[in-house]
Design brief:
Number of domains: 3
Helix content: 40-55%
Distance between the termini: 17 Å
Radius of gyration: 27 Å
Structural class: alpha/beta
Strand order of the largest sheet: 1-18-17-16-3-11-12-15-13-14
Shape: globular
Strand content: 5-15%
Number of strands: 19
Largest sheet: 10 strands, mixed
Length: 510
């Protein structure tokens, strides 16, 4: 048998290689002659691994129109479809991010008296990705994995990378305690999780202003800076709504297949509703552009200015009907939710009482894991779908030959290191350390294919990101756009991929 022990354990069943691995371990612990053979053996293993990988075909492309399942979902059980608006029904041009950034930046200068020079800052859309965490007290922007570990090379103070030594000095390790990361759940907010696409301009502005202060040796405190930027961005939404609403075709991306999606739902007698935090005039302008002037014919219930997530958790918020003639809410009680009328505020408990919608018959789509999906999934039994527009770009990166080649070799090399790490002689250790350096370079390069600063939204080097963990918990399915569901039957069942647990076979087909 050729010298392919580690390769065999990579590609087939490790359990069948126990005796061979034991032999290798003994080789590394014997005489100097054995040690020399061990080094040659390792080099041969490396060369054979490399040759075999280079002979393999690259994996097939991921279909960017796929719907991916985290949990089994049978659409035959779904009779009611619900939707958020922003970044769910409506996808925005990058111009919206630039607009939010510019408006927020101007508020910082005009209202909060930040230096005039800040007006010269320019939005960098390539800097951040969705799902990052911001340490409010220390002023650090970082990417965490599902175990709250900071991804190496993905933590910034302003626009300046933070060294591993500084990370250890600040936190005492690479992993952050759960109570520190999720303190907001107990009223002790130390970190902000920037989980929607509207937060990208906020992250960029926050980092750039901090960098400006550092470059100009200006003393500042990271907590007020965070609060000022957050307040500035929040304050500009009414103005942003007015500008976008008046120039809708410049800011919205029109999906020609979205009308077909809603037509299919109505043809199959599905009930449809929308719950959005945006004001009605803004939603009306957008959906008239996306679905046509008669868009309200598709929807059985329309709720605007819902103030999610309070809509899902606070049962003391009654529905108010919008008087469209005078553009204000009525004062009388709402005793039924009628098609063709517009409702404001409200709460989920009352919605379910008035419509009789319960549990797994409802499938609700949103883009935000917390404000859209968490409560309805965890507390009300609704089925949920996440719309993640950045999937298009992520899958484009996954389908590139560069990524396929590097990630494939990275996995094999990692397994080779794992299988050979118990050689203890100095020469063998030096060779394994050389492999580890190559692995670290591959990790860095694959990360930078997605984003040079923070990498993929969904993955760190080995683990799902913190954002992914929450997404997979709160969303039964996810996809890049609603119209991708047109490729599936209205009665389709989505099945999650059967993942291999750490203690199971790498492959059942030995």
């Amino acid at each position: 048998m050729p010298v392919l022990g580690p390769l065999y354990s990579v590609c087939f069943a490790r359990v069948r290689l126990r005796s061979h691995i034991k032999v290798k371990k003994l080789i590394g612990m014997c005489s100097s002659q054995r040690r020399r053979y061990s080094q040659e053996h390792l080099q041969k293993c490396y060369e054979d691994h490399r040759a075999l990988w280079e002979s393999k075909k690259l994996p097939e492309n991921v279909n960017p129109r796929s719907v991916f399942a985290c949990n089994e979902l049978d659409l035959r059980d779904v009779s009611v479809y619900g939707f958020d608006y922003d970044y769910t029904l409506a996808n925005y041009e990058p111009a919206v991010e630039h607009l939010i950034y510019e408006l927020g930046k101007n508020v910082l200068v005009s209202k909060y008296r930040y230096p005039e020079e800040i007006k010269s800052l320019k939005y960098n859309r390539e800097f951040a990705v969705r799902g990052l965490h911001y340490d409010i007290e220390h002023g650090l922007l970082m990417k965490l994995d599902q175990f709250q570990q900071i991804q190496q090379g993905s933590i910034y103070h302003g626009l300046t990378p933070v060294s591993q030594e500084q990370v250890l000095k600040t936190y005492g390790g690479r992993s952050l305690p759960l109570h520190y990361v999720e303190g907001h759940l107990r009223g002790d907010t130390k970190m902000a999780h920037l989980a929607d696409l509207f937060s990208l301009p906020e992250m960029c502005l926050l980092s750039q202003v901090a960098q400006y202060f550092m470059d100009h040796n200006l003393q500042y405190h990271s907590v007020p800076l965070f609060n000022d930027v957050k307040a500035a961005i929040a304050s500009i939404h009414p103005e942003m709504h007015r500008i976008v609403g008046r120039n809708i075709s410049e800011y919205l991306i029109k999906d020609p297949d979205l009308v077909t999606f809603f037509q299919r739902l109505k043809e199959n007698n599905k009930e449809i509703f929308i719950i959005t935090n945006s004001p009605f005039y803004f939603v009306n302008a957008g959906l008239s552009y996306l679905l046509g002037e008669d868009w309200r014919e598709f929807f059985d219930v329309v709720v605007a200015s819902a103030k999610k997530p309070a809509f899902f958790t606070d049962s003391m918020r009654p529905f108010r009907e919008l008087n469209e003639e005078i553009h204000t809410q009525t004062w009388g009680p709402v005793t039924q939710l009628e098609k063709g009328k517009i409702y404001l505020e409200g709460n989920l408990k009352r919605l379910q009482e008035l419509k009789g919608w319960q549990g797994q018959e409802v499938l609700y789509f949103g883009d935000h894991p917390y404000s859209d999906l968490a409560d309805v999934s965890l507390n009300h039994g609704w089925r949920t779908g996440a719309i993640l527009w950045e999937l298009d770009y992520e899958i484009q990166c996954l389908n590139s030959d560069d990524y396929k080649k590097m990630s494939g070799w990275l996995m094999i090399l990692q397994s080779l290191i794992e299988s050979s790490q118990d050689f203890e002689d100095e020469e063998s250790r030096k060779m394994i350390e050389k492999w580890e350096e190559e692995r670290d370079q591959l990790r860095k390069k694959t990360k930078e294919l997605f984003n040079p600063h923070f990498g993929s939204v969904f993955r760190t080097h080995d683990n799902p990101t913190y954002f992914s963990r929450r997404l997979f918990r709160f969303a039964d399915i996810y996809t890049s756009r609603l119209s991708n569901l047109n490729d599936y039957s209205i009665n389709h069942t989505f099945y999650p991929r059967r993942g291999v647990l750490p203690h199971e076979y790498k492959s059942l087909f030995v």
